[in-house]
Amino acid sequence: MTDTELFSYAMPSLGADMDEGAVIEWLVEVGDTVERGQVVARVETEKSDIDIETWRGGTVAEIVVGAGETVPVGTVLMHLHANGAEHGPTPLPSPAPTAKPREEISFPLERDNSSRGPRPAPADRAPRVPHETVWASPLARRLAGERGIALLDIDGTGPGGAIRSSDLPELAALQAHSDHPPTAAHENEPRSRTERIRSVIAVRMARSNAEIPHYRLQYDIDLGPLTAHLSTVNAERPIGERIVPAAALVRAVALTAQRHPELNGTWRDGRFRPGLAVNVSVAISLRGGGLVTPTIRHADDVTLDETMRLLREFTTVARTGTLRSEWTAITSSITVTNLGDRGADLVHGLISPPEVALVGFGRIAERPMVVDGVVVARPVVIATLAADHRATDGAIGSRFLSTLANTLQHPEQL
Amino acid sequence: MNPGPTEHDLRSIVVSVITATAPDVADDIATIGDDVDLFEEFGLDSMDRMNIMTSLSESTGVTIPDEQYPRLNTMNDLIGHLS
After folding, report:
1. Looking at the domain assignment, is residue A340 inside a domain?
2. Interface of B with A in 31-60 (CB under 8 A)
3. Does one domain contain both A344 and A239?
4. Domain, as residue range, for A398
5. Which of A17, A217, A383, A412 has the greatest CB tally within 10 Å of its CB?
6. Is the four-CA dihedral A145, A149, A153, A156 of positive or negative sign?
7. Any alpha helices (H) in A149-192, and if so which ranges?
8. What is the ipTM of this complex?
9. Overall number of domains in chain A
10. Phi–psi pair at A404, nearest 5 degrees
11. Which of A285, A316, A347 to mutate to test the interface with B (most CBs of B within 10 A)?
12. Same domain, A134 and A248
């Protein structure tokens, strides 16, 4: 790093679905000194509003994209002088490939692995790779999903071959009468957060249901040991440090996923890619509809207390509408959905692509169980697994649930 | 009974705690009935419940044992326990 180094800060990819984002607000201005990890702007994506951080410290030299503008992922948002060097009319170098923050593990997913590092401007991107890595605007993706159009079959005319809504054949007639570029016209329509989330869920779940051959298993798990353990532990703790069963369930899934790598990863380009870490996404439902899925990075290395702390934070923050980029900018390898203490008995969920497994928990309730030959009432949770039959078969899924059940019989080891 | 916060005070505390935990219920909580299950009505989950119980306990100094959580569902339940 030299005193004169300028680096470009680009719109990060904040989730597998994100193709573009709108800068809502800049929290820094030209001349400000910023530190690595500092939140510099708030960005609106299809899913939620997200605070984005810089991974390099320096002085803000230029803000390229103004508040209110929507730009594709990878577009340079601002330039920084590293180490507070003087601003000069130096031609900008290519984004530094070494500027990679905290996370050392990178996932081989083109649309995700540079999410925390600068990436080339869209025009410089490598040609579009077919299959899961199709670039398309959110509108194009949404409309294609609604109309059952396969994006793979379309040649995009946008940056880097990205598919725009106007590239969709069935839409040409609809858009012919528009005075404005159809993409911009549609995408500028104000939509509520719920509507945005709804449309993301619509596309993702339609894709999941259409593409993934699910198999589903269920397992009644005795939570007697867990509830007894938590009662003991919680009785000794101040109320703010107590643990709820939901946190233990997430932790148990993380440990189980670590032991069953066949179900921890993604299905892309016709084959399974094992996750390089156990990154557990947690579905959090929002009042008024929709859900968000923040991710616990390296969840198998996160203690139960820390899991609990994160889940509390997720729940609170999800309700305010702004997630943090550190929760969304990583590729999740498995998802947990929990209906909570008042939900239905069990959930047969849909896998969140490109993952290959979803673990669901219903309500924990007293149910009859046979213990040592006697029918007794025990706190039971019905765990379900929805898994991608392309990646695994029922035997593996069954072993996964069996490990999960076994893990929960030893709550002191969570 | 120990002298302490009035029912009115406690109601304000409950409202502010729930609103802080779940800002999206702010408009509705003012008009909700005292015997309506707040968690059911507002779709609050176990994490919300834990956050709310923690804040209530911290705000009032009243201990809320773990096993009481499922029994404290309405405004009346909560005010009753905190009184």
Report:
1. yes
2. 39-40, 42-43, 45-51, 53-54, 57-58
3. yes
4. 213-413
5. A383
6. negative
7. 172-176, 182-187
8. 0.73
9. 3
10. -60, -45
11. A316
12. no
